[in-house]
Specification:
The complex is a heterodimer of chains A (214) and B (268). Chain A is mostly helical and 214 residues long. In chain A, 64% of the residues lie in helices and 3% in strands. Chain A is elongated. By secondary structure, chain B is mainly alpha-helical. Classes of the chains: A mainly alpha (214), B mainly alpha (268).
Protein backbone atom coordinates (compact mmCIF):
# COMPACT_ATOMS: atom_id res chain seq x y z
CA UNK A 1 0.00 0.00 0.00
CA UNK A 2 1.42 3.33 -1.02
CA UNK A 3 1.13 6.43 1.07
CA UNK A 4 1.13 9.87 -0.35
CA UNK A 5 1.21 13.22 1.30
CA UNK A 6 -1.89 15.31 1.55
CA UNK A 7 -0.85 17.77 -1.16
CA UNK A 8 -2.53 15.52 -3.76
CA UNK A 9 -6.33 15.89 -3.73
CA UNK A 10 -8.11 12.71 -2.65
CA UNK A 11 -10.10 12.40 -5.87
CA UNK A 12 -6.85 12.35 -7.87
CA UNK A 13 -5.44 9.33 -6.05
CA UNK A 14 -5.63 6.00 -7.90
CA UNK A 15 -7.54 3.23 -6.19
CA UNK A 16 -5.54 1.32 -3.61
CA UNK A 17 -3.51 4.33 -2.65
CA UNK A 18 -3.95 5.31 0.95
CA UNK A 19 -4.59 8.92 1.70
CA UNK A 20 -2.65 10.09 4.67
CA UNK A 21 -2.50 13.56 6.11
CA UNK A 22 1.03 14.78 6.19
CA UNK A 23 2.38 15.53 9.64
CA UNK A 24 1.79 19.10 10.70
CA UNK A 25 4.70 21.29 9.77
CA UNK A 26 5.97 23.05 12.82
CA UNK A 27 6.60 26.63 11.85
CA UNK A 28 8.91 28.24 14.35
CA UNK A 29 7.31 31.17 16.12
CA UNK A 30 8.87 34.40 14.90
CA UNK A 31 11.50 35.94 17.10
CA UNK A 32 10.39 38.99 19.05
CA UNK A 33 11.70 42.35 17.85
CA UNK A 34 13.92 42.65 20.88
CA UNK A 35 15.73 39.40 20.15
CA UNK A 36 16.13 40.29 16.50
CA UNK A 37 17.71 43.59 17.47
CA UNK A 38 20.03 41.86 19.92
CA UNK A 39 21.09 39.61 17.04
CA UNK A 40 21.72 42.68 14.87
CA UNK A 41 23.76 44.19 17.67
CA UNK A 42 25.80 40.99 17.81
CA UNK A 43 26.57 41.13 14.11
CA UNK A 44 23.72 39.27 12.40
CA UNK A 45 22.71 42.10 10.10
CA UNK A 46 20.21 39.97 8.17
CA UNK A 47 17.86 40.36 11.13
CA UNK A 48 17.67 44.06 10.34
CA UNK A 49 15.86 43.15 7.14
CA UNK A 50 13.18 41.36 9.15
CA UNK A 51 12.82 44.33 11.50
CA UNK A 52 12.45 46.58 8.48
CA UNK A 53 9.68 44.40 7.07
CA UNK A 54 7.82 44.45 10.36
CA UNK A 55 8.09 48.11 11.19
CA UNK A 56 8.67 50.28 8.16
CA UNK A 57 4.95 50.56 7.41
CA UNK A 58 3.79 51.93 10.78
CA UNK A 59 6.93 54.04 11.10
CA UNK A 60 6.41 55.58 7.68
CA UNK A 61 2.73 56.18 8.42
CA UNK A 62 3.63 57.96 11.64
CA UNK A 63 6.23 60.09 9.88
CA UNK A 64 3.87 61.03 7.07
CA UNK A 65 1.38 62.28 9.63
CA UNK A 66 4.10 64.04 11.57
CA UNK A 67 5.69 65.83 8.64
CA UNK A 68 2.80 65.91 6.19
CA UNK A 69 5.29 65.18 3.47
CA UNK A 70 5.82 61.75 1.97
CA UNK A 71 9.27 62.46 0.59
CA UNK A 72 10.48 63.79 3.92
CA UNK A 73 8.87 60.82 5.69
CA UNK A 74 10.76 58.39 3.47
CA UNK A 75 14.03 60.20 4.03
CA UNK A 76 13.52 60.18 7.77
CA UNK A 77 12.47 56.52 7.80
CA UNK A 78 15.63 55.59 5.92
CA UNK A 79 17.71 57.65 8.34
CA UNK A 80 16.08 55.82 11.23
CA UNK A 81 17.15 52.43 9.89
CA UNK A 82 20.57 53.81 9.06
CA UNK A 83 20.98 54.98 12.65
CA UNK A 84 19.79 51.63 13.93
CA UNK A 85 22.67 50.05 12.05
CA UNK A 86 25.10 52.72 13.09
CA UNK A 87 24.19 52.73 16.77
CA UNK A 88 23.28 49.06 17.07
CA UNK A 89 25.95 48.57 19.73
CA UNK A 90 24.08 51.00 21.99
CA UNK A 91 20.92 48.87 22.01
CA UNK A 92 20.41 47.65 25.54
CA UNK A 93 19.50 44.18 26.74
CA UNK A 94 16.55 45.47 28.71
CA UNK A 95 15.38 47.82 25.97
CA UNK A 96 12.14 48.00 24.03
CA UNK A 97 12.82 47.91 20.33
CA UNK A 98 9.77 49.94 19.32
CA UNK A 99 10.46 52.65 21.87
CA UNK A 100 14.07 52.80 20.70
CA UNK A 101 12.99 53.02 17.07
CA UNK A 102 10.61 55.90 17.71
CA UNK A 103 13.23 57.57 19.88
CA UNK A 104 15.57 57.50 16.87
CA UNK A 105 12.71 58.64 14.63
CA UNK A 106 12.17 61.62 16.88
CA UNK A 107 15.83 62.59 16.60
CA UNK A 108 15.86 62.13 12.84
CA UNK A 109 12.67 64.15 12.43
CA UNK A 110 14.13 66.95 14.55
CA UNK A 111 17.24 67.02 12.39
CA UNK A 112 15.10 67.13 9.28
CA UNK A 113 13.01 69.92 10.74
CA UNK A 114 16.12 71.91 11.63
CA UNK A 115 17.46 71.53 8.12
CA UNK A 116 14.13 72.60 6.65
CA UNK A 117 14.01 75.57 9.00
CA UNK A 118 17.54 76.56 8.01
CA UNK A 119 16.61 76.53 4.32
CA UNK A 120 17.00 79.91 2.66
CA UNK A 121 13.34 80.22 1.69
CA UNK A 122 11.32 81.16 4.73
CA UNK A 123 7.84 79.71 4.71
CA UNK A 124 5.38 79.30 7.55
CA UNK A 125 5.69 75.57 8.40
CA UNK A 126 1.99 75.26 9.15
CA UNK A 127 1.31 76.18 5.54
CA UNK A 128 4.16 74.18 4.11
CA UNK A 129 3.87 70.82 5.77
CA UNK A 130 0.88 69.42 3.97
CA UNK A 131 1.44 71.22 0.75
CA UNK A 132 3.25 68.37 -0.98
CA UNK A 133 0.56 65.80 -0.29
CA UNK A 134 -2.25 68.11 -1.23
CA UNK A 135 -0.59 69.10 -4.46
CA UNK A 136 0.08 65.54 -5.56
CA UNK A 137 -3.23 63.95 -4.63
CA UNK A 138 -5.94 64.48 -7.18
CA UNK A 139 -8.54 62.91 -4.90
CA UNK A 140 -7.84 65.32 -2.13
CA UNK A 141 -7.96 68.42 -4.33
CA UNK A 142 -11.25 67.26 -5.75
CA UNK A 143 -12.79 66.68 -2.34
CA UNK A 144 -11.46 69.47 -0.18
CA UNK A 145 -13.96 68.76 2.55
CA UNK A 146 -13.05 65.15 2.70
CA UNK A 147 -12.59 64.16 6.30
CA UNK A 148 -9.10 62.88 5.79
CA UNK A 149 -8.02 66.04 4.07
CA UNK A 150 -9.56 68.15 6.80
CA UNK A 151 -7.89 66.16 9.51
CA UNK A 152 -4.54 66.38 7.76
CA UNK A 153 -4.93 70.11 7.60
CA UNK A 154 -5.92 70.20 11.25
CA UNK A 155 -2.83 68.17 12.12
CA UNK A 156 -0.76 70.62 10.13
CA UNK A 157 -2.04 73.43 12.29
CA UNK A 158 -0.84 71.82 15.49
CA UNK A 159 2.45 72.80 17.02
CA UNK A 160 5.08 70.27 16.10
CA UNK A 161 5.46 69.14 19.72
CA UNK A 162 1.71 68.65 20.09
CA UNK A 163 1.53 66.71 16.86
CA UNK A 164 4.41 64.52 17.96
CA UNK A 165 3.01 63.60 21.36
CA UNK A 166 -0.47 63.02 19.98
CA UNK A 167 0.69 60.75 17.17
CA UNK A 168 3.02 58.79 19.45
CA UNK A 169 0.19 58.27 21.92
CA UNK A 170 -2.01 56.83 19.17
CA UNK A 171 0.52 54.20 18.11
CA UNK A 172 -0.67 50.76 19.08
CA UNK A 173 2.86 49.57 19.62
CA UNK A 174 3.65 52.09 22.34
CA UNK A 175 2.46 52.38 25.91
CA UNK A 176 2.24 55.76 27.60
CA UNK A 177 5.24 54.77 29.68
CA UNK A 178 7.23 54.26 26.47
CA UNK A 179 5.96 57.51 25.00
CA UNK A 180 7.16 59.22 28.17
CA UNK A 181 10.62 57.67 27.74
CA UNK A 182 10.75 58.80 24.12
CA UNK A 183 9.72 62.33 25.04
CA UNK A 184 11.97 62.33 28.11
CA UNK A 185 9.20 63.36 30.49
CA UNK A 186 7.05 61.74 33.15
CA UNK A 187 4.16 59.45 32.24
CA UNK A 188 1.71 61.95 33.72
CA UNK A 189 3.18 64.80 31.71
CA UNK A 190 3.04 62.74 28.51
CA UNK A 191 -0.59 61.90 29.17
CA UNK A 192 -1.57 65.51 29.89
CA UNK A 193 0.28 66.76 26.82
CA UNK A 194 -1.37 64.15 24.60
CA UNK A 195 -4.84 65.01 25.89
CA UNK A 196 -4.23 68.72 25.46
CA UNK A 197 -2.98 68.14 21.92
CA UNK A 198 -6.07 66.07 21.15
CA UNK A 199 -8.34 68.90 22.26
CA UNK A 200 -6.41 71.38 20.17
CA UNK A 201 -6.67 69.08 17.18
CA UNK A 202 -10.38 68.69 17.79
CA UNK A 203 -10.78 72.48 17.84
CA UNK A 204 -8.92 72.91 14.54
CA UNK A 205 -10.81 70.01 13.00
CA UNK A 206 -14.19 71.43 13.99
CA UNK A 207 -13.16 74.88 12.84
CA UNK A 208 -12.11 73.58 9.44
CA UNK A 209 -15.39 71.75 9.04
CA UNK A 210 -17.19 75.06 9.46
CA UNK A 211 -14.99 76.96 7.04
CA UNK A 212 -16.44 77.60 3.59
CA UNK A 213 -14.99 75.75 0.63
CA UNK A 214 -12.08 77.49 -1.03
CA UNK B 1 -17.27 63.11 39.65
CA UNK B 2 -17.11 66.67 38.36
CA UNK B 3 -16.85 67.80 34.75
CA UNK B 4 -13.10 68.50 34.94
CA UNK B 5 -12.28 65.01 36.21
CA UNK B 6 -14.54 63.53 33.59
CA UNK B 7 -12.97 65.45 30.70
CA UNK B 8 -9.45 64.65 31.84
CA UNK B 9 -10.20 60.97 31.44
CA UNK B 10 -12.26 61.06 28.27
CA UNK B 11 -9.53 59.83 25.91
CA UNK B 12 -9.05 56.83 28.20
CA UNK B 13 -12.78 56.17 28.10
CA UNK B 14 -12.81 56.31 24.31
CA UNK B 15 -9.84 53.95 24.15
CA UNK B 16 -11.50 51.63 26.70
CA UNK B 17 -8.53 51.89 29.01
CA UNK B 18 -10.59 52.45 32.15
CA UNK B 19 -11.67 49.69 34.47
CA UNK B 20 -15.37 48.84 34.50
CA UNK B 21 -16.15 50.77 37.68
CA UNK B 22 -14.45 53.98 36.55
CA UNK B 23 -16.05 53.74 33.11
CA UNK B 24 -19.50 53.25 34.62
CA UNK B 25 -18.98 56.23 36.90
CA UNK B 26 -18.00 58.42 33.96
CA UNK B 27 -20.89 57.28 31.82
CA UNK B 28 -23.21 58.09 34.68
CA UNK B 29 -21.88 61.63 34.78
CA UNK B 30 -21.99 62.06 31.00
CA UNK B 31 -25.58 60.86 30.81
CA UNK B 32 -26.60 63.70 33.08
CA UNK B 33 -24.30 66.39 31.63
CA UNK B 34 -24.99 67.61 28.08
CA UNK B 35 -21.74 69.62 28.00
CA UNK B 36 -19.63 66.58 28.77
CA UNK B 37 -21.67 64.49 26.34
CA UNK B 38 -20.87 66.98 23.55
CA UNK B 39 -17.22 67.01 24.57
CA UNK B 40 -17.08 63.21 24.46
CA UNK B 41 -18.77 63.10 21.06
CA UNK B 42 -16.39 65.60 19.52
CA UNK B 43 -13.27 63.97 20.99
CA UNK B 44 -14.46 60.54 19.89
CA UNK B 45 -15.06 61.80 16.37
CA UNK B 46 -11.61 63.37 16.25
CA UNK B 47 -9.88 60.28 17.58
CA UNK B 48 -11.81 58.08 15.20
CA UNK B 49 -10.83 60.28 12.25
CA UNK B 50 -7.22 60.38 13.39
CA UNK B 51 -6.97 56.61 13.75
CA UNK B 52 -8.74 56.10 10.44
CA UNK B 53 -6.37 58.38 8.56
CA UNK B 54 -5.08 56.13 5.80
CA UNK B 55 -1.36 55.56 5.62
CA UNK B 56 -0.07 55.30 2.11
CA UNK B 57 2.61 52.75 1.41
CA UNK B 58 6.11 54.11 0.98
CA UNK B 59 7.70 53.98 -2.44
CA UNK B 60 10.06 51.19 -3.42
CA UNK B 61 12.95 53.59 -2.86
CA UNK B 62 12.70 53.19 0.90
CA UNK B 63 13.07 49.43 0.77
CA UNK B 64 15.86 49.65 -1.80
CA UNK B 65 17.66 52.27 0.26
CA UNK B 66 17.48 50.39 3.55
CA UNK B 67 18.38 47.04 2.02
CA UNK B 68 21.32 48.75 0.33
CA UNK B 69 22.44 50.12 3.69
CA UNK B 70 22.26 46.68 5.26
CA UNK B 71 24.23 45.07 2.44
CA UNK B 72 26.87 47.81 2.54
CA UNK B 73 27.22 47.38 6.28
CA UNK B 74 27.54 43.62 5.87
CA UNK B 75 30.23 44.07 3.23
CA UNK B 76 32.10 46.51 5.39
CA UNK B 77 31.91 44.26 8.40
CA UNK B 78 33.03 41.24 6.41
CA UNK B 79 35.72 43.20 4.61
CA UNK B 80 37.26 44.74 7.70
CA UNK B 81 37.29 41.42 9.44
CA UNK B 82 38.82 39.64 6.44
CA UNK B 83 41.46 42.27 5.93
CA UNK B 84 42.57 42.34 9.54
CA UNK B 85 42.45 38.54 9.63
CA UNK B 86 44.53 38.26 6.47
CA UNK B 87 47.23 40.44 7.95
CA UNK B 88 47.12 38.42 11.12
CA UNK B 89 47.29 35.17 9.15
CA UNK B 90 50.19 36.42 7.07
CA UNK B 91 52.02 37.45 10.21
CA UNK B 92 51.30 34.05 11.75
CA UNK B 93 52.66 32.23 8.70
CA UNK B 94 55.86 34.21 8.85
CA UNK B 95 56.27 33.54 12.53
CA UNK B 96 55.70 29.80 12.12
CA UNK B 97 58.32 29.59 9.41
CA UNK B 98 60.91 30.93 11.86
CA UNK B 99 61.10 27.78 13.94
CA UNK B 100 62.22 25.34 11.24
CA UNK B 101 64.80 27.87 10.31
CA UNK B 102 66.17 28.00 13.83
CA UNK B 103 66.05 24.25 14.18
CA UNK B 104 67.83 23.74 10.90
CA UNK B 105 70.47 26.23 11.88
CA UNK B 106 71.25 24.28 14.98
CA UNK B 107 71.31 20.90 13.26
CA UNK B 108 74.41 21.19 11.16
CA UNK B 109 77.08 23.78 10.74
CA UNK B 110 77.81 22.63 7.19
CA UNK B 111 74.26 23.09 5.94
CA UNK B 112 73.68 26.25 7.94
CA UNK B 113 74.77 28.84 5.45
CA UNK B 114 72.95 27.25 2.53
CA UNK B 115 69.73 26.81 4.41
CA UNK B 116 69.84 30.25 5.90
CA UNK B 117 70.38 31.77 2.49
CA UNK B 118 67.57 29.68 1.08
CA UNK B 119 65.30 30.73 3.85
CA UNK B 120 66.09 34.40 3.47
CA UNK B 121 65.37 34.25 -0.25
CA UNK B 122 62.23 32.22 0.29
CA UNK B 123 61.19 34.47 3.12
CA UNK B 124 61.61 37.50 0.97
CA UNK B 125 59.59 35.98 -1.84
CA UNK B 126 56.87 34.85 0.53
CA UNK B 127 56.75 38.24 2.20
CA UNK B 128 56.54 39.98 -1.15
CA UNK B 129 53.72 37.69 -2.15
CA UNK B 130 51.83 38.28 1.07
CA UNK B 131 52.34 42.00 0.83
CA UNK B 132 51.11 42.02 -2.74
CA UNK B 133 47.98 40.23 -1.57
CA UNK B 134 47.50 42.62 1.30
CA UNK B 135 47.96 45.62 -0.96
CA UNK B 136 45.37 44.27 -3.35
CA UNK B 137 43.01 43.94 -0.43
CA UNK B 138 43.80 47.49 0.70
CA UNK B 139 42.93 48.77 -2.74
CA UNK B 140 39.64 46.93 -3.09
CA UNK B 141 38.56 47.20 0.51
CA UNK B 142 39.51 50.84 0.67
CA UNK B 143 36.67 51.84 -1.58
CA UNK B 144 34.08 49.95 0.42
CA UNK B 145 35.33 50.92 3.83
CA UNK B 146 36.02 54.50 2.85
CA UNK B 147 32.38 55.01 1.99
CA UNK B 148 31.35 53.42 5.24
CA UNK B 149 33.76 55.50 7.29
CA UNK B 150 32.64 58.68 5.62
CA UNK B 151 29.04 57.81 6.23
CA UNK B 152 29.47 56.72 9.81
CA UNK B 153 31.16 59.24 12.03
CA UNK B 154 32.54 62.72 12.04
CA UNK B 155 36.31 63.10 11.94
CA UNK B 156 36.24 64.27 15.54
CA UNK B 157 34.43 61.14 16.66
CA UNK B 158 36.79 58.87 14.73
CA UNK B 159 39.80 60.68 16.12
CA UNK B 160 38.39 60.36 19.61
CA UNK B 161 37.89 56.64 19.05
CA UNK B 162 41.49 56.24 17.90
CA UNK B 163 42.82 58.23 20.84
CA UNK B 164 40.75 56.14 23.22
CA UNK B 165 42.10 52.94 21.70
CA UNK B 166 45.61 54.37 22.00
CA UNK B 167 45.24 54.59 25.78
CA UNK B 168 44.44 50.90 26.18
CA UNK B 169 47.37 49.45 28.12
CA UNK B 170 47.06 45.89 26.91
CA UNK B 171 45.04 46.02 23.72
CA UNK B 172 43.47 42.87 22.38
CA UNK B 173 43.36 41.83 18.74
CA UNK B 174 40.19 43.83 18.11
CA UNK B 175 41.77 47.10 19.25
CA UNK B 176 44.93 46.49 17.23
CA UNK B 177 42.85 45.60 14.16
CA UNK B 178 40.79 48.74 14.67
CA UNK B 179 43.90 50.91 14.78
CA UNK B 180 45.33 49.24 11.68
CA UNK B 181 42.05 49.71 9.84
CA UNK B 182 41.95 53.39 10.82
CA UNK B 183 45.52 53.85 9.64
CA UNK B 184 44.71 52.08 6.36
CA UNK B 185 41.32 53.47 5.45
CA UNK B 186 40.45 56.63 7.33
CA UNK B 187 40.07 59.60 4.98
CA UNK B 188 41.46 62.00 7.59
CA UNK B 189 45.26 62.46 7.71
CA UNK B 190 44.98 63.38 11.36
CA UNK B 191 43.19 60.15 12.22
CA UNK B 192 45.60 58.02 10.18
CA UNK B 193 48.57 59.70 11.83
CA UNK B 194 47.20 59.23 15.31
CA UNK B 195 46.39 55.60 14.58
CA UNK B 196 49.99 55.09 13.45
CA UNK B 197 51.29 56.83 16.57
CA UNK B 198 49.11 54.58 18.69
CA UNK B 199 50.64 51.55 16.97
CA UNK B 200 54.23 52.60 17.81
CA UNK B 201 54.12 50.95 21.20
CA UNK B 202 53.00 47.69 19.56
CA UNK B 203 55.65 47.59 16.84
CA UNK B 204 56.98 44.36 18.32
CA UNK B 205 53.89 42.63 16.93
CA UNK B 206 54.30 41.10 13.50
CA UNK B 207 50.77 42.03 12.50
CA UNK B 208 51.39 45.70 13.21
CA UNK B 209 54.56 45.83 11.15
CA UNK B 210 52.88 43.93 8.30
CA UNK B 211 49.96 46.35 8.45
CA UNK B 212 52.15 49.45 8.24
CA UNK B 213 54.17 47.95 5.40
CA UNK B 214 51.00 47.05 3.48
CA UNK B 215 49.68 50.58 3.86
CA UNK B 216 52.85 52.44 2.91
CA UNK B 217 52.47 52.13 -0.92
CA UNK B 218 48.85 53.29 -0.73
CA UNK B 219 49.49 56.25 1.51
CA UNK B 220 49.55 59.55 -0.35
CA UNK B 221 50.21 62.06 2.40
CA UNK B 222 53.97 62.77 2.82
CA UNK B 223 53.63 63.39 6.55
CA UNK B 224 52.07 60.00 7.12
CA UNK B 225 54.48 58.35 4.68
CA UNK B 226 57.51 59.72 6.57
CA UNK B 227 55.98 58.63 9.87
CA UNK B 228 55.42 55.15 8.48
CA UNK B 229 59.02 54.96 7.33
CA UNK B 230 60.21 56.09 10.78
CA UNK B 231 58.01 53.43 12.28
CA UNK B 232 59.47 50.70 10.08
CA UNK B 233 63.01 51.79 10.92
CA UNK B 234 62.20 51.86 14.63
CA UNK B 235 60.66 48.40 14.33
CA UNK B 236 63.74 47.18 12.43
CA UNK B 237 61.46 45.86 9.72
CA UNK B 238 64.06 44.71 7.20
CA UNK B 239 61.32 43.32 4.99
CA UNK B 240 60.47 46.94 4.20
CA UNK B 241 63.66 47.48 2.18
CA UNK B 242 62.20 46.54 -1.25
CA UNK B 243 59.31 48.90 -0.69
CA UNK B 244 61.63 51.66 0.42
CA UNK B 245 63.76 51.09 -2.65
CA UNK B 246 60.69 51.62 -4.82
CA UNK B 247 59.92 54.86 -3.04
CA UNK B 248 63.47 56.10 -3.53
CA UNK B 249 63.20 55.37 -7.25
CA UNK B 250 59.78 56.95 -7.59
CA UNK B 251 60.17 60.34 -9.27
CA UNK B 252 56.65 61.33 -8.37
CA UNK B 253 57.15 60.74 -4.65
CA UNK B 254 57.65 63.70 -2.35
CA UNK B 255 61.38 64.59 -2.04
CA UNK B 256 61.24 64.43 1.76
CA UNK B 257 59.66 60.99 1.56
CA UNK B 258 62.38 59.81 -0.81
CA UNK B 259 65.09 61.17 1.50
CA UNK B 260 63.49 59.41 4.45
CA UNK B 261 63.26 56.19 2.50
CA UNK B 262 66.92 56.47 1.51
CA UNK B 263 68.02 57.02 5.10
CA UNK B 264 65.80 54.18 6.25
CA UNK B 265 67.41 51.79 3.74
CA UNK B 266 70.83 52.68 5.11
CA UNK B 267 69.69 52.10 8.65
CA UNK B 268 67.99 48.82 7.88
Amino acid sequence: MTSLAAEIPVHCLPSGVEWRRSPPVETPSPLPDHELMIAVRDGDLDCMGELFERHHGPLYGYLVKLTGNRTAAEDIAQNVFQRMLKYRHTYRDEGSFTAWMYHLARRCASDQYRKASAAPVSVDPSHLEFHADEATSADESAAARDDHALLRRALGRLDRDDREVLLLSRLQELSFAEVAVILECSVGAARVRAHRALRTLRDHYMQLQKEPLT
Amino acid sequence: MNCQNCRDRMPDLVDEKLDAKAAAEMRGHIDGCPECARELASLSATLWALDALPARAPSHKLRAGVMGLIETEKLTLRGQSEWATSIRAAAGQRRSRGFPWLRTLLQGAGACAVLALGFILGERNATQHQLAELRARVDTMGQIVEQSVLRKETTGNRLEAVLTEATVAKPDERVIDGLINSMAFDPSVNVRLNALNALYSHSDQEVVRAGVLACLPKETNPLVQVSMIDFLVGAKAREAVPELRKLVADDKADPDVRDSARRAMDLL
